């Protein structure tokens, strides 16, 4: 992405050029971006673990597997690794003991590998717990606000549906800003979703939100296409996995009446 495109995009959101360039310099120093060529930047190696987590929102339903009632636990993590735990949906059951249902693809080993990539130290153990005593199991299941999660799915889906219709009527720059901000909030919500099993949170409403965001992503890309072409940036059309095909039909089926 050329710097001039970043600066021009920043103006749409009320960001001054100097502030954009300072932020870019800090990102460069941290290794989160790198120079692709003169005046152009791309994501750096240090951004790869979180970037992989973020772009995976499209296929989050493929990250889950049936739950047999077991748990993944991390013992001894501190505040420096809180982001990694949050991104994988773990919550504190006891001081220095965070847990989540063992329903993610790859099991304990898969969760451990993703946590390590996100910064969890190698000496912090990641464990599989086959069973918790009934009272503790009930306490663990209550670590997530199920009502808030379900309401969040419904509210965001409604906002996306309404905004998608509105984008066609708005002036182009207003549509760009609205699509970027609302789409970004929805993606953040999906990235931070704990992906709980159906026994705790029925997954249909989450699947419906993913399906709605797939459609909104297509609309948002179309809104930004002309701007990007003006800076010689090849418009990245909707990837194959976003086109209405087997994956999206499966999402619609999973969503059932929630779509």
Q: Can you describe this structure?
A:
The chain is an alpha+beta fold and 259 residues long. The protein folds into 3 domains: 3-43, no CATH class; 64-141, Alpha-Beta Plaits (2-Layer Sandwich); 145-258. It is 52% helix and 10% strand. It is built from 10 helices and 6 strands. The strands form 2 sheets. The chain has a 4-stranded antiparallel beta sheet, sandwiched between helices. The chain has a two-stranded antiparallel sheet with strand order 1-2. The longest helix is centred in the last third of the chain and has 27 residues, at 204-230. The radius of gyration is 20 Å and the shape is globular. Mean pLDDT is 90; it is low at 240-255.
Question: Main traits of this protein?
Answer:
two-stranded antiparallel ribbon; 10 helices; 4-stranded antiparallel beta sheet; 259 residues; 10% strand; 3 domains; Alpha-Beta Plaits; alpha+beta
Outline of the structure:
The protein has 259 residues and is α+β, with helices and mostly antiparallel strands. It has helices spanning 3-12, 17-29, 48-55, 82-87, 107-117, 134-141, 146-167, 172-191, 204-230, 246-255; strands at 33-37, 40-43, 71-75, 91-94, 97-101, 126-129.
């Amino acid at each position: 992405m050329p710097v001039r495109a970043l600066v021009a995009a920043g103006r749409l959101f009320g960001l001054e050029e100097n502030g954009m360039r300072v932020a870019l310099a800090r990102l460069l120093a941290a290794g989160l971006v790198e120079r692709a060529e003169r005046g152009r930047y791309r994501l750096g190696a240090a951004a790869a673990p979180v970037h992989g987590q973020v772009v995976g929102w499209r296929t989050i339903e493929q990250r889950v597997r049936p739950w047999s009632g077991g748990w993944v636990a991390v013992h001894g993590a501190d505040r420096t690794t809180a982001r990694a735990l949050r991104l994988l949906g773990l919550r504190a059951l006891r001081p220095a003991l965070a847990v989540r249902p063992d329903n993610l693809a790859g099991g304990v080993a898969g969760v451990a590998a993703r946590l390590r990539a996100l910064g969890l130290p190698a000496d912090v153990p990641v464990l599989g717990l086959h069973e918790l005593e009934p009272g503790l199991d009930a306490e663990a299941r209550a670590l997530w606000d199920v009502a808030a999660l379900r309401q969040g799915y419904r509210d965001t889906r409604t906002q996306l549906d309404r905004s998608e219709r509105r984008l066609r009527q708005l002036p182009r720059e207003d549509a760009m800003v609205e699509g970027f901000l609302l789409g970004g909030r929805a993606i953040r919500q999906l990235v931070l979703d704990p992906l709980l099993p159906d026994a705790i949170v029925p997954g249909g409403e989450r699947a419906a939100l993913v399906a709605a965001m797939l459609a909104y992503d297509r609309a948002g890309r179309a809104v930004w296409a002309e701007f990007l072409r003006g800076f010689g940036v090849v418009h990245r059309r909707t990837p194959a996995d976003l086109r209405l095909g087997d994956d999206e039909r499966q999402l619609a089926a999973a969503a059932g009446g929630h779509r």
